[in-house]
Here is the input.
Amino acid sequence: MPTAPPGDVYQAIADPRRREILELLGTDEQPVQAIVDRFDVSFAAISQHLRVLREAGLVARRRDGRSQLYRATPSALEEVHDWTAQYRAFWRGRLKRLNKYLSERR
Here is the structure.
């Protein structure tokens, strides 16, 4: 599994499994074992995904006794949101022109 350079949000969210983990953690803090149990991969593979997400600032970890608990910290996705804003405007304009064209053809 390729790893992202530390802090690379785009590389971290490029992997479908990491996006699934983020969705899982979006609702509540979860212990590592609960995350592992949701996927058909090894503990080591999930740990690697969590490390990439943590280094990108997308999840935070805390210890509770012997357990490690993870939660989403989606503020790191603001960078992605800001970057994609230019494309939202582009597509809005394109869709308006398409709508106008289709209306005129009726």
User: Anything to note?
Assistant: The CA atoms of residues 99 and 105 lie 10 Å apart. The chain is about 60% helix and 15% strand.
